[in-house]
Amino acid sequence: MGKLATAAAYECSECGWRAPKWVGRCGKCQAWGSLVQALPDLPPATAGSSRVPLQAGSPREKAVPIGQVDAGSARARPTGLDELDRVLGGGLVPGAVVLLAGEPGVGKSTLLLEAGAMAAETGPVLYVTGEESAAQVRQRADRVGAISDSLFLAAETDFAALLAHVEAVSPGLLIVDSVQTISAAGIDGVPGGVTQVREITAALTALAKQRTMTTVLVGHVTKDGSVAGPRTLEHLVDVVLSFDGDARGQLRMVRALKNRFGPTDEIGCFELGEYGLVGLPDPSGLFLSQRSDPVPGTCVTVALEGRRPLVAEVQTLVCPATAPELTRRVTSGLDSSRVGMVLAVLQRRANVSIGKQDIYAATVGGVRLTEPSVDLALALALASARADLAIPGDLVAIGEVGLAGEIRRVAGVQRRLSEAQRLGFRRAIVPPGSGILPTATPPSMNVREAPDITTAIALSLGG
Q: Pairing state of beta strands 151-155 and 97-102?
């Protein structure tokens, strides 16, 4: 029994799953070739005993009444990027540890390089890169205009060398790009493995608290879009940010998955161009096509990303299948399973004959719409494409479609309508009982309630 407890185990470098012997495929995340040898677990403590010695130590600071604690030291300091500050809750807090995760090439390094250059105006900033050379980072800095005498750059992958740079520069902000590239001697596992990432993050968190130094760590993501590494990684840091966007488009969005100092229902929008990232305080116009006349198969909706309403357009195309025995369902920017569900509801509840037709559904501007409130606009766009009738260009549709064909209520209808009215839309179809106050409804907007999908189609195509 004791031999089993102390035997070396194998640990998945993607999710942390452990096995007593090596296997080719992880039993949890199903990744191939990801198991590496890990340190053996210590034997469990016997009843009535503990591995932690019950001896009093010397506290670093004396406990004081909470009313005497100075809260000014934890006040957020703006980064200079308004969209990033919106998500962070005002800026970076001294001593906080932020984990920024995203896919390769999405622009994480560019975002932090610009933020670091702006933060360097108030004090020294240390940017440690383990994925690129110093010359490569300098070229990017020249392109985006992120040059400052107080922005220090070091290309290191060794944790001891990183600590030496921190001692020499004494930065107020430390940026590590990325935490998966940093390794430390004496820690089991390969660089980027679960054990190394966990221990390096824990050490950097302790260093940040000790020196009251804001630390930003760049992290990778797995195939399903979640933060790579053990789940404890997200518990160690104070803020977890997700940076994503379509690699073929220019839109980039940053979201807070965890934030001890601010909200988690805000998003920041950026446009990635030749000269770096530019904040988009009003991104709704990016998700609408620029045309003068309505076209069959299109419908506008208002989605909520956090607390920010985004007016976006859904486009569909219905055409005879080239091979009747094999129809195609192609989606871009929409959840394919929800598109299939809406198609089934249209056929069964609204008598919209899709039959042996190829279906194409997409969004405009590279935005990804996964909120259920997009269902109604998708359904109306499909019905419009099938009937070859255009929906009025000044109409928006908001609502979730149920399997019985009913239109369900969604949150924030009043906020969505106000945003649509601001952009010039004059008609709207919403679920019944949305709680819209007559005094709060924009006076120039005609709002109609539709209890089911058949009524909604009649209101949108019948005038």
A: unpaired
